[in-house]
Design goal:
This protein is mostly helical and 605 residues long. It contains 26 helices and 8 strands. The strands form 2 sheets. A 5-stranded parallel sheet has the order 5-4-6-7-8, sandwiched between helices. Strands 1-2-3 form a 3-stranded antiparallel sheet, with no helix packed on it. The longest helix is centred in the first third of the chain and has 28 residues, at 12-39. It starts with 11 loop residues before the first helix and ends with a helix. GO terms for molecular function: hydrolase activity, acting on ester bonds. This is SGNH hydrolase-type esterase domain-containing protein. Keywords: Membrane, Transmembrane, Transmembrane helix.
C-alpha cells in the first residue's frame, strides 16, 4: 500500500502567483483593448511616413503630430486639400544624402511652404555644387512643437535612413505642446509621449480632454495661439527658467546620443528672434502701468510731447524696471539718441511674460552644451552669423516677418548660413566647401516662388496680425515686412482682389487667387501658379489633376498630361473619377497603348 505525499511550496510562491495574476489581468485587458482600438481604426499611428500611392514613395503622415496635442484624433481635412510637401523614396536611393529637419514652426518655414523655407534653400545651394548624387531635405518641423517633439520624432526617424539631422528649436518650451505650460515633471512628459503611442491611451486622454476644451490641431494659428496663452503667463523666474532650459538640453542630448551611436552628423541652430522691431506681448504690472506705457508710446514712437517728463516719471516708478513694455520703450529711446545697442532689447525680450521667443538662459545653455559636445554636435551661432553679415539692425523686420519667423529675405539668408553649416559637417562625405555660394535669389525661379504664393503668404500674415494676441498688444507691432510685401506684390495692386482676400478666411486665399487668374485669362501666370502648387505640394493628387485638366481644356494632347493624370490617380488612392478623366484623355490623345501599359504595371486591367 502506497501513500501519496503532499507537495509543499515555499511561502513566497502563493504571494508571487497572486502578484502575477494582479499584474497579468490588467495587462491582458489593456492588450485586448489595444487590439480592438487598432482593428477599429481608432486614433493615430506613430508612423512618420505613409505610403503615397506611388510604389516605393512615401509622404509625411499628416496625423503623426496630432499625438502631441491633448486630443488625438485623425484629421478631418479632405484628401484633396491635404498638404503633402514630401514624396520620399524608401528604401533610399544610393546616390541620395537625406537631411531630416526637426523643430517648430520656424524650422517648418512658417508662413512659407516647405520648399520656400531656409532648409530647402540650403538643399538647393548644396545640390548646386554636387557633381554626383543629390541632397534631399525632408522637413519634419511643425507649429507649436517643443523639444519633446524633437526628441520623439528623432527617435522615430532613424528607420527612414537619414544622413544628417538638423534641429532648430527652443521657442516653444513654454507654450508649445508638452511644454512648461502643460505642467508635470520631465519624466512624466517622457512617459506621456510613450503612452500616446498606444491607441488605448489615446482613447483615455481623449476622454479627459473632450471636444471644445482644447483647440484642435486643425485650427488656424490664431486659435492655437489663444489656447497656448490660456495656460498662463511666465514672468522671469531664474530657477524656473533654468529648469525649462535644462529639460530642453536633456531632450537635445537624447537626440545627440542617438545620432552618435549611428555616426550621423547633428546640426543644432541657435533660436533667434526679432529683437528690435517686435514689442513685447505683455509685461509685469502692465495693467497698473498702462498709463505710463501709453504715454511712452506717444513720446517715443509717435514723437508727441516732451520725452523728459516721461523719463522722469519712469525713474520715479520702482515697478517700471520689471515691465517689458517700459524696457522696450527705453531701448527704443536709447537707440534714437545714442545709437543701436542690442542688450536693452535682449533684456526686454526676456522680461516678456508671454515668452514666445527663447530666453537667453536657454540660448546660453544651448551654446555651452553644443560646444562641449563638438564635433558630435555642429552648432550654428545663428545670431552671430546674422550680425556678421548684416549688422545688429538685421534682428528686426529686415530678416523677420513677425516675432520669430523669417521673412522671405530672411529665409534666403538663413538658407545660405545653413548650407555652410551642413557643408562643414559633411565635407568628408559630400566634398562640398562652405562659403562663396551663388546668391540664393538666383534660385527663386527654381523655387517656384510666384507672386500668387507670395500673395497668399502675406495675406495670411496680415490676417494673423489683425487678431489676438497681436491685436491686443499695448505697443502695436508695425509689421513693416508684411506691409512692404503687400505693396510690392503685383497681384495685390488689384483692389478688388485685395479686398476679397482681406475679407475671406486665410485658408481660401490660394483658391481665390487661382480663380482670379483663370477668370481674367491670365494664362501664363495661371500655369505658373499650377506648376508652383505641384512643386510645393507634390504628394497631393489635386495639384497634378488641376494642371492636367487645365491643359486638356486648352486643347492640348501632350503625352506629359497623361503622366500628370497617372500621378494624380495613384496619389488619390485610385479615385474612380480621376481614372475616368485619364481614360477619356488617353482616348482623345491616342495614348491608349501607353495607358494600358500603365495599368498593367500597377496591376490593373
Amino acid at each position: 500500500m502506497s501513500t501519496e505525499s503532499s507537495k509543499t511550496y515555499p511561502r513566497w510562491v502563493p504571494a508571487a502567483a497572486a502578484a502575477i495574476v494582479v499584474v497579468a489581468i490588467p495587462l491582458l485587458v489593456i492588450g485586448i483593448a489595444e487590439i480592438g482600438f487598432r482593428l477599429a481604426g481608432y486614433g493615430v499611428s506613430g508612423e512618420l511616413f505613409v505610403e503615397s500611392g506611388i510604389p516605393g514613395y512615401y509622404t509625411l503622415h499628416n496625423d503623426y503630430y496630432r499625438r502631441f496635442h491633448p486630443r488625438t484624433m485623425p484629421s478631418n481635412i479632405p484628401k484633396e486639400s491635404q498638404y503633402h510637401p514630401v514624396l520620399m523614396q524608401h528604401p533610399k536611393p544610393a546616390d541620395t544624402f537625406r537631411i531630416f529637419v526637426i523643430g517648430g514652426s520656424t524650422a517648418k518655414g512658417f508662413p512659407f511652404m516647405d520648399q520656400h523655407a531656409f532648409p530647402a534653400i540650403a538643399g538647393m545651394l548644396l545640390n548646386s555644387r554636387l557633381e554626383d548624387g543629390r541632397v534631399e531635405v525632408v522637413n519634419l518641423g511643425r507649429s507649436a512643437m517643443s523639444s519633446y517633439y524633437v526628441r520623439e520624432t528623432a527617435r522615430r526617424a532613424w528607420r527612414w535612413d537619414p544622413d544628417l539631422i538638423l534641429v532648430y528649436s527652443g521657442h516653444n518650451e513654454y507654450f508649445g505642446t508638452i511644454g512648461a505650460g502643460s505642467g508635470g515633471g520631465h519624466l512624466n512628459k517622457l512617459l506621456y509621449m510613450r503612452l500616446k503611442s498606444l491607441r488605448s491611451a489615446q482613447w483615455l486622454f481623449n476622454q479627459l480632454n473632450p471636444p471644445g476644451q482644447t483647440a484642435d490641431p486643425n485650427d488656424p494659428p490664431l486659435t492655437l495661439m489663444a489656447e497656448r496663452l490660456a495656460s498662463g503667463q511666465f514672468p522671469e523666474d531664474e530657477d524656473f527658467d533654468r529648469v525649462v532650459a535644462e529639460r530642453f538640453i536633456s531632450n537635445l542630448d537624447a537626440v545627440r546620443k542617438q545620432a552618435a551611436r549611428r555616426e550621423i552628423p547633428l546640426v543644432i541652430m541657435d533660436p533667434v528672434s526679432n529683437l528690435i522691431t517686435m514689442p513685447p506681448f505683455d509685461g509685469a504690472h502692465a495693467e497698473e502701468l498702462s498709463g505710463l506705457i501709453e504715454e511712452g508710446v506717444d513720446r517715443i514712437i509717435r514723437r508727441e510731447g516732451d520725452i523728459q517728463d516721461w523719463v522722469q516719471a519712469v525713474a520715479e516708478e520702482p515697478k517700471a524696471a520689471e515691465n517689458a513694455h517700459i524696457l522696450y520703450l527705453q531701448a527704443l529711446h536709447q537707440a534714437q539718441t545714442d545709437g543701436l545697442e542690442l542688450d536693452p532689447f535682449v533684456r526686454t525680450k526676456d522680461a516678456d511674460t508671454i515668452p514666445f521667443r527663447a530666453r537667453e538662459i536657454l540660448r546660453s545653455q544651448l551654446a555651452d552644451w553644443a560646444q562641449s559636445h563638438h564635433p558630435e554636435v555642429h552648432y550654428v551661432p545663428l545670431q552671430q552669423e546674422i550680425q556678421s553679415l548684416s549688422g545688429d539692425g538685421a534682428l528686426s523686420d529686415s530678416y523677420f516677418i513677425d516675432h520669430l519667423h523669417f521673412s522671405h529675405r530672411g529665409q534666403l539668408i538663413v538658407g545660405r548660413i545653413t548650407a555652410d553649416a551642413v557643408a562643414d559637417a559633411t565635407h568628408a562625405r559630400l566634398g562640398v566647401h562652405s562659403g562663396g555660394w551663388q546668391p540664393a535669389e538666383a534660385f527663386i525661379p527654381r523655387m517656384h516662388y510666384v507672386p500668387a504664393l507670395d500673395a497668399s503668404v502675406q495675406i495670411s500674415m496680415n490676417n494673423l496680425l489683425q487678431n489676438p494676441p497681436f491685436r491686443d498688444m499695448r505697443i502695436p507691432y508695425q509689421a513693416l515686412s508684411v506691409r512692404t510685401s503687400i505693396n510690392n506684390n503685383p497681384l495685390l495692386q488689384d483692389d478688388e482682389l485685395l479686398d476679397s482676400l482681406l475679407t475671406s478666411p486665410a485658408d481660401d486665399a490660394l483658391q481665390i487667387i487661382g480663380e482670379y487668374l483663370y477668370t481674367n485669362e491670365r494664362w501664363e501666370e495661371f500655369v505658373d501658379f499650377l506648376n508652383a502648387l505641384i512643386h510645393v505640394n507634390p504628394g497631393n493628387y489635386n495639384a497634378h489633376l488641376n494642371i492636367a485638366e487645365f491643359l486638356v481644356s486648352a486643347g492640348s494632347t501632350r503625352p506629359q498630361i497623361l503622366i500628370a493624370f497617372q500621378r494624380a490617380y495613384l496619389l488619390s488612392g485610385r479615385d474612380t473619377d480621376v481614372r475616368q478623366a485619364m481614360v477619356e484623355f488617353a482616348e482623345t490623345a491616342g495614348l491608349e497603348t501607353e495607358l494600358a501599359q500603365f495599368f498593367t504595371h500597377i496591376g490593373e486591367h
